[in-house]
Write a structure and sequence with these properties.
CATH architecture of the largest domain: Sandwich
Organism: Amycolatopsis alba DSM 44262
Number of strands: 12
Oligomer: single chain
Number of domains: 2
CATH topology of the largest domain: Jelly Rolls
GO molecular function: 2-oxoglutarate-dependent dioxygenase activity
Bound molecules: fe (ii) ion
CATH class of the largest domain: Mainly Beta
Shape: globular
Number of helices: 7
Domain Aspartyl/asparaginy/proline hydroxylase: 29-174
CATH superfamily of the largest domain: B-lactam Antibiotic, Isopenicillin N Synthase, Chain
Helix content: 25-40%
Order of helices and strands: EHEEHHEEEEEEEEEHHHH
Strand content: 15-25%
Domain L-proline 3-hydroxylase C-terminal: 184-280
Radius of gyration: 19 Å
Distance between the termini: 36 Å
Protein name: L-proline cis-3-hydroxylase
């Protein structure tokens, strides 16, 4: 796992509560890449390419990102963004809440033209939700509030919140023209303090018996529950020690065993879409046949 802790800030609970109240009051809308998630997934852009509060799509932008109307309504988070981080390289800042939901394993930035090493995504949990986890390749982590993480979104990752308890977070994206040192994202050099030990989740061993049980879902799969099975399979690696991407291989195998060619094709397409290649604005349907 290349994802790691960059530093930590002490969050002011009183000031944060006011901002969280505003974020909760913003209506929930359909998200970009909603096909990646089920349940409650709400992104609110604070800074983005256009300065428009409804623009939720990450894209390359010349210069620095523009504050949206939401940024003005969350003074504490605005202060964190502006005092902790360097504005020049800021490309997007958004809050992301996930409740009783899973974000399926995927890689980001595959729809962008440039070398993925130019992109640097940070992630900070604002509220502790003990049942919320992130995965990156072979590791599952529980992020603690205030920890500033480099999230290696260019490699396979997923997220889950098994509970109804909000997992509100602040996700900030930077991009550089060429090589850079990760400490360059910090305006306040005292915050940069890498090397802290993360809270890594100990998972159960994954056996052949588990695999056989999963593949026996071929007796259950239908076009009408194809999407549900994808989300179910995407959850397995948070509990058992398998790679997040295995979910797609199982789905393809289950569809083959069920002997439905359209499901096989769709399973292969979603694996390709999430993990390998997609064009900007490409969407994918798990429910149309
Ligand atoms: Fe992602």
């Amino acid at each position: 796992m290349r994802s790691h802790i960059l530093g930590k800030i002490e969050l002011d609970r009183t000031r944060l509560a006011k901002d969280l109240g505003y974020l909760a009051s913003v209506p929930t809308v359909e998200e970009e890449y909603d096909e990646f998630s089920n349940g409650f997934w709400k992104n609110i852009p604070l800074w983005n390419a256009t300065g428009e509060g409804e623009d939720r799509l990450y894209r390359d932008v010349p210069g620095s990102a523009i504050a949206t109307e939401h940024a003005a309504r969350v003074p504490y988070l605005r202060e964190i963004v502006q005092t902790v981080f360097v504005g020049d390289r800021l490309k997007m800042a958004r809050t992301r809440n996930l409740k009783n939901a899973v974000v399926i394993p995927h890689r980001d930035f595959v729809e962008l033209d440039q070398d993925v090493d130019r992109y640097f995504r940070t992630f900070m949990v604002l509220e502790d939700s003990p049942q919320a986890f992130h995965s990156n390749e072979d590791t599952v982590i529980h992020m603690r509030p205030g920890e500033i993480w480099f999230l290696d979104a260019a490699t396979v990752h997923a997220a889950i919140n098994f509970s109804e308890h909000s997992r509100q977070s602040l996700c900030i994206d930077f991009a550089f023209d060429g090589g850079f040192d990760e400490k360059e994202i910090f305006a306040d050099p005292t915050v940069y303090d890498p090397g802290a030990t993360p809270e890594i989740v100990t998972r159960k061993p994954f056996t052949q018996e588990h695999r056989d049980r999963i593949l026996s879902l071929s007796k259950v799969i239908e076009r009408q529950n194809f999407r549900d099975l994808l989300f179910l399979l995407s959850k397995v690696h948070f509990t058992y020690d398998v790679h997040p991407g295995d979910a797609y291989d199982w789905l393809v195998e289950i569809a083959k065993k069920a002997d439905d060619e359209k499901m096989v094709v769709k399973a292969e397409q979603i694996r390709e879409f999430a993990m390998e290649a997609r064009a900007l604005h490409d969407r994918f349907s798990l429910t149309s046949w």
